[in-house]
Design a protein that fits this description.
mainly beta; seven-stranded mixed beta sheet; four-stranded antiparallel beta sheet; 11 strands; globular
Length: 130
């Protein structure tokens, strides 16, 4: 079974940095996408960033462009989200998820549509103080 485990959250002051990690395992197919989503109290879940495994296409929400960087380490089966210049509005529980879009005969065109993702890991809390 596919398993995802997010880690690296914590408490940081505004302007600081954190690096989230997503350990991905159990894939029996070659290509998929890993997305990072977040959900703040009282708000809907939103897509933050995503990356396709094989060709490394990256996507960012407008709210994090220029501040967050997603990357993948194939050898370790890890996906990282480097978060710099953090703002209080970045406070949320962050989740990583996997979309097996090639198996569905689909292109990867809606990276932030949560319903497209097939597996979800438990979240990690990120709190940014002002």
């Amino acid at each position: 079974d596919v398993q995802l485990q997010a880690s690296g959250g914590g408490l940081v002051q505004a302007g600081g940095s954190l690096r989230l990690s997503c350990a991905a395992s159990g894939f029996t197919f070659d290509d998929y996408a890993i997305g990072w989503f977040r959900q703040a109290p009282g708000k809907e879940r939103e897509g933050v960033s995503s990356i396709t495994r094989n060709d490394g296409r990256t996507y960012y929400a407008n709210s994090v462009k220029g501040r967050f960087t997603i990357s993948i380490d194939h050898a370790k089966n890890m996906v990282y989200l480097q978060m710099d210049s953090l703002k209080p509005e970045d406070t949320a529980v962050y989740y990583c998820a996997a979309d097996a879009y090639p198996l569905k005969g689909l292109g990867y065109s809606t990276p932030f549509r949560a319903d497209d993702y097939d597996w979800w890991g438990k979240g990690t809390q990120v709190t940014v103080s002002s």
